Protein 1
Amino acid sequence: MKVHFEKVDTTDEEHAIIYAMAETEDIRYAINLLEGNGGNIPVTKDGNTYLCSPQNIYYIESVDKKTFLYTKGDCYECKLRLYELEEMLSYYFIRCSKAMIVNLRKVKSVKSEMGGRMNASLLNGESIIISRSYVKDVKGRLGL
């Protein structure tokens, strides 16, 4: 992909034009970043509020109507619901079960399990199960 940058006067409004054959997931991700929608997610831990960068998230899980974000070594609570996070996160985040979203950039390996499920080993050493109804989508995104 070619990228062209042109400096404008301070009085001109900044804008970006994207020429593409189709509006793919990658293009939508770039648009979200340019529009400022790919920002940090407010999370809490021990009464403190933090801003969590999506690139640090390994997976997101919903348990008892609460949403938790897992990073390399920490777990944070988030007020957003899974479907809201799924909409705001990039192409590399995908639903892997009814209650979980995984960051595909943090997947080390996958292995087929009995019953059509898959086991995904993450870069932080944790393993998660990909439900059989989501296996096809995950394989497609991973190029398998």
Protein 2
Amino acid sequence: MKTGTPRAKRRFKDDVYAALARVPAAIANPHRLELLELLGQRPRTVADVAGEAGLSIANASQHLQVLAKCGLVEVERHGTFAFYRTTSVTVYRLLQSLHEVANQHDRAIAEVFAKHLGDRDRGIEDWEKARALMRDPRVALLDARPAEEYAAGHLPKAINAPLEGLRSGKVSLPRSKRYIVYCRGPFCTFADDAVAILRERGFDATRLDLGPLEWQAAGRQLSNVG
């Protein structure tokens, strides 16, 4: 290792921190952060993720290429279709750490929630409390995400209850249960809407302020069995 001289040590420091800065530089964009969250739910094509994030296909493709260059996403090809996906659970841990640091040290996120969601129900914010409740046979776990995301992987024993199914009455639920509802994570409002629908109909429902990415970041496995 040739770092004996002060100049050599300085070059090493400059190079290593420049390399380290590639990842934060890649995620220092609100669209790319959203794309990572979406790709964490299930693999998606460029057109699919562009439509979900409100981007043009060309713009989404550029953002995905930036994320791919530093290894945060990868491409799987199925015939003529290319599907992007996040590369590992460490990406979810990075997103969770970013969320936690921002919540603790910057009021911007709290201000956005207050502006758009008002007095939001805090829901259940801790996995241990959630798991303790889920061990109760009188409690059922609902996944309010679209069916495709549920099929790609969901919390163990969760029942898929997408919003359109709840609104239309296609999802039938017994009234004897208490329901814990989750969606994509803290920045997703599917669970808020689902809880509102259930409470309007007389059900006991609570939002889980965590989702599949946080579950995997905690070292747990998703289920793909109904």
